[in-house]
Specification:
The protein is of the alpha/beta class. The protein contains 14 helices and 7 strands. Helix 11 links the parallel strand 6 and strand 7 (249-251).
Length: 319
């Protein structure tokens, strides 16, 4: 009886961040005062346990992967990268993807794996992504100039129709950063110190989007260039210092059926909640999460018929 009481007491004296247990509440209080746990620490995707650094999280994930008897080849061919389920066949996987409900836990796991470099072998010219004709792009920015108001791209992500990561990297801005916007973007100076230069990022993304076709020759139907999906792509492309033909852009911020009746754009956070049924951008924002949301919105809208004359905007009327 005493043992059960002591066990229940120790369970109550448990740190909510690192899960350490203490016999007395006083010890737990001392631990919380000295540990300086923060909501910004990397956390494990399922149990939400905090890790001190990304390196410790990497070690945890690699150790878990090494202990699994699952054949990686099987997961690559039949595994769902949203909920991590493994259907019995490739056909079952296609059916499953149509009904799989994206959970924030799964998104967190995948984005953390991308941050840790576990998917560094997924190159822009990989065979898996060559057949993709629609890609989603999202950027996260830091602040430049003296008052920190100039948006500078510091992180970029590109995914395909199956929300597999094609390209994901930190970007080194060309001018000094004066505001890392850690509270919303999660950026630190050390993340950008050895980041990929902006010109190299521009070249990689442009090469993939154009798919071997000259920019001036891109056509919407007959060419090899890929459709670019995003939310507020004018801003993202401006931060990247890039241009892309408007005829190949599908922007959920300016697509009339997704806009307000006043012809103003809805936020991606609202659209995801209203049309996809889950929440994003709670806390530090992740470009992969935004890519998934915009791609799913695009695929959902693409399958529906819309009479565009019902969504004429002012510029259309003038023309």
């Amino acid at each position: 009886m005493d043992n059960r009481i002591e066990s229940s007491e120790s369970l109550r004296n448990k740190c909510a961040a690192c899960f350490r247990q203490f016999n007395k509440i006083e010890h737990l209080v001392d631990h919380m005062r000295n540990s300086f746990h923060s909501v910004h620490e990397p956390t494990r995707g399922i149990c939400r346990k905090h890790c001190r650094s990304f390196e410790s999280l990497r070690e945890y994930l690699i150790d878990k992967l090494n202990n699994q008897t699952l054949n990686v080849t099987i997961f690559n061919t039949r595994g769902c990268n949203i909920c991590l389920a493994i259907p019995n066949s490739s056909n079952a996987l296609r059916v499953h993807r149509g009904t799989c409900q994206l959970s924030r836990v799964a998104v967190g796991v995948l984005s953390l794996m991308a941050n840790l470099g576990i998917q560094e072998d997924v190159r822009v010219d990989s065979i898996r992504s060559r057949g993709s004709q629609v890609v989603a792009l999202a950027c996260k920015v830091v602040g430049g100039v003296s008052d920190g108001t100039l948006d500078l791209c510091a992180r970029v992500c590109l995914v395909d129709e199956n929300v597999d990561i094609i390209f994901h990297a930190y970007v080194k801005p060309q001018i000094p950063v004066t505001n890392y916007r850690y509270e919303t973007m999660g950026m630190r100076a050390e993340y950008l110190r050895d980041a990929m230069p902006l010109r190299q990022v521009q070249q990689k993304i442009q090469d993939f989007l154009c798919n071997g076709e000259p920019m001036w020759k891109i056509r919407s139907r007959s060419g090899k260039a890929r459709i670019l999906v995003g939310h507020g792509l004018d801003h993202d492309l401006e931060c990247l210092g890039m241009e892309y033909p408007a005829i190949m852009i599908r922007d959920t911020a300016t697509y009339p059926p997704l806009m307000k009746t006043s012809k103003l754009s809805n936020s991606l956070k609202y659209l995801t909640q209203a049309y996809l049924g889950y929440e994003i951008q709670n806390g530090i924002q992740d470009p992969y999460e935004d890519c998934v949301a915009t791609m799913r919105l695009y695929m959902s809208m693409k399958s529906q018929m819309h009479r565009m004359e019902e969504y004429l905007i002012a510029t259309d009327l003038q023309n």
